[in-house]
Amino acid sequence: MNTKPFPDPPKPNDHLEWLIDESLTESFPASDSPAPAVAREPAEGASIQSGSVTMSVEWQGDHKLIGDEKASFERELERLGLKPDDFLVEVRREPDVEGVAGRSAIRYTVFISDVAHPERETCKLHGGHGKDWIGRYGKIVVGDR
Questions:
Q1: What's the predicted TM-score (pTM) here?
Q2: Domains in the chain: how many in total?
Q3: What's the distance, CA 117 to chain centroid?
Q4: Do 14 and 25 touch, CB atoms closer than 8 A?
Q5: DSSP state of 57
Q6: 49-86: per-residue pLDDT in tens?
Q7: Helix or strand run (H / E) with residue 112
Q8: What are the φ/ψ torsions at residue 29 (nearest 5 degrees)?
Q9: Strand, helix or coil at 48?
Q10: Residue 96 domain-assigned (yes or no)
């Protein structure tokens, strides 16, 4: 017969054991996470090594609007001596230009964050037909040095 009315109290770190159990650590985004977990999509022209895509800039939002500009932006970062892996870029579509048809009507805002240097502010630039947001960002970076 068991003479103890209650089980032994837990040891100091027993309550943490379930947190490190690999079977319980599936990919669920935290509810208070600043951004949802999203699959990163490589820029067009990204290199493929050993059957996997080399990730670089993390693109979010309406990034499919900008097509080839993604690869151009990553090349510009490398030209400036920056690591594309350190950048998160969110693209948000703006209302189209009235009276203009096709791709010339498309306007968007680009938010560029250097995640390796959170003390730097997110840069907001405008893109679309006739807007050189990539060149403008290059000038901003060079001016900050």
A1: 0.61
A2: 1
A3: 14
A4: no
A5: S
A6: 434 445 499 999 999 989 899 999 999 999 999 999 99
A7: strand 107-114
A8: -70, 145
A9: strand
A10: yes
Residue 34 lies in a domain: no
The encoded tokens of residue 47 equal 């290199």
- Side-chain-side CA neighbours of residue 63 (13 Å): 21
**Nearest-angstrom CA–CA distance, 70 and 75:** 9
Q: Identify the bridge partners of residue 53 per DSSP, sorted by sequence position.
A: 48
pLDDT digits (tens), the chain, 145 positions: 556 565 555 555 444 443 444 444 343 344 343 444 444 445 444 544 434 445 499 999 999 989 899 999 999 999 999 999 999 999 999 988 888 887 788 899 999 999 999 999 999 999 998 899 999 999 999 987 6
122: domain CATH number is 3.30.160
Encoding tokens for residue 52?
Answer: 């996997």
Contact between 75 and 68 under an 8 Å Cβ cutoff? The reply is no
Give the domain range for residue 126: 42-144
Residue 18 lies in a domain: no
37 part of a folded domain: no
Structural tokens at position 37: 């977990």
On whether the CB atoms of residues 55 and 42 are closer than 8 A, the answer is yes
Helices 133-144 and 69-79: crossing angle, nearest 10°? 20
